[in-house]
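Interim report, section 4.2 (structural modelling).
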Amino acid sequence: MAEIALEGVSKVFADGTEAVHTLDLDIPDGRLMVLVGPSGCGKTTVLRMVAGLEDLTGGRILIGGDEVNEVPPGDRDVAMVFQNYALYPHMTVYQNMALSLKIRKIKRAEMDRRVREAAEVLHLEDLLQKRPRELSGGQRQRVAMGRAIVREPQAFLMDEPLSNLDAKLRVQMRAEILRIQKDLRVTTIYVTHDQVEAMTLGDLVAVMKKGVLQQVAAPQELYANPANLFVGGFIGSPAMNLVEATVSTSDAGTFVEFAENRLRVPDEVVSARPALASFRGRTVILGIRPEGMEDAALVPSSSPDSRFPITVDLREGMGSDVYLHFTIAAPPVFTEDTRELAADVDEKALTDLKEQASERRSTFIARASPESAARVGERIEILVDTRKLYFFDPATGASIGGDRAAATVGVAGSSGV
Amino acid sequence: MRTIEAPERVESTRARPPIRSARRYRARRIAYKVAMYAILIGLCSFIMMPVFWALTAALKPDLEPVFTPTPEWFPTKFFEWDNFRRVLVDTLPFLRYAINTMIIVIGNIIGVLISCSLVGFAFARLRFRGSKVLFYILIVTMLIPWQALMVPQFLFFVKVFHWYGSYLPLIVPSFTGVGFFIFLIRQYMRTIPRDLDDAARVDGLNTWQIFWRIILPLSTPVLTVCAVFTFLGSWNNLLGPLIYLDDDSKFTVAIGLANLVTRADTPWNLTMAANLITVLPTVIVYFFVQKKLIGGIASVGLKG
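Predicted structure of the assembly:
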């Protein structure tokens, strides 16, 4: 076991593209760090640099306190799980798992013991003499894990190991990976573009965008206190609703206004975000999470200051919740961050965003209780949990918060677990 | 809430064609098979005719005319199986020739497999300065016919190395690589996913071990193709042995055959027996590797 430290690591490819921009990252011993971000954000490049498969353009990588920049991959004592498993097709499962031990000239009895132990952990005992092509996707994934486990390495490096599995198997293997990592307590870097995986697996989650680290924090912290617009929009599903709004103050308190709607910002929220005062009379980006909204009809005694009227465009019953889609007559936030986020969803999301920007309307999603009777086309009121409002600076995208939040903006320091 | 109403089911009024009885289907299948086999047998016997004619000739005693007015397609009258023994060890030394040829064949196969797989791997996997230029030069060498190199190569091997009369000039060149095979192997190795190299590197294998333990075993289809082509090429090679060998005890089957026919008084029965003996190894090799060969040719995108 060892801690892994990246100090000012950067990577510029031969064609001039900067994949990673001076990255500082500490992965404490025995912890699982998830690198998450849209495709092309440099997360896989970081992993490959830690593995030694990619040279660094600048900075240092330390494993267990030793600089490994010039150490070949095989001598770094790290094991990697590849997205497409990269099992050796001409070898049996046993040979696949044993190869690295054989190369290291580990005694036959010891090798056999380790392979069989790993096989037991992963329920592969009956498959040891099979070849990869005879296995299902899930089994192949387990063999790839087994190949990493038998090494008893300083660190596991996992490159989207579950992305080739179907949804059900993915959930199952996710739990399996978590269990194994906790049992073995091996320092792990886990790369994924799936924010659900990031939230469920990570002791720490590092969000990256275009080669730049946005924030490192524990999953809950990331959700509750996103350092900037990008992190806020990336973490959470359905994504945070974003709209341009104006902050105003009167005797009655601080208000935030968007598209003829007015919400009162509770005093404790205002006092927790001293920087918000400087935005008085100016535009901010207001973020409301779908789960921060409710069908107001279900909470009759709620304050009118935290409600606004809408017309339901679409109702999606999820069983446990109901997603209510509605349109706000205000332009969507159209910044480089939101474009990046939309592009990560798919091509259509990006064109939708552009269309909404030109028509000066934005689509919101509220996650209401299944008891909500709201129907498509019906005019209802939406209640907002105003204690859970997010504010971002439209110029920088940084979260508007207290001093502490301000300090983690941009290149974030790692918060404790 | 939206409700979608299912359209009412409309009964199909179109008449269905009557189902043919099972017996009729079976009759058709049998008829089809019979026709198929008849055609195949017909074609096969057409192809096999010269072979059987050669066998008929090979089994005739000396002085019995071979070129009869009506060709004899099947051995009916004479069965001098002893002719084969005479060709192999007694009258003619074809066993010796076959062993000599085998030495050259095996030497060539070993040479081709070692050199071409190494060079192919380098071109497919290693990044080095000038690799593209070198590869183009390699392709260009494929365009030069062997006959054009024959004389300079002969002078080189004979004057510089004094290899006249030995097998070395027939074997050593294969150890320096064959352009076409290098090309084939490179193309094949490029299709092996690079993730395997990465995984192997993380597993602690060095470049040599990646070649030996990962890439080479996965390249067996293309290596089989190269080995078989090399076998055919050097087993049937006449010109090479003809210009470099001068001692009857070192001759190959191809020279042996050529010498038989050029004599004034050709012993046709023995010539045909020698012919059949010469063809046999090729047929056997093809018989055993045909599946692998077809698979290999298909996988390297090479049309037979």
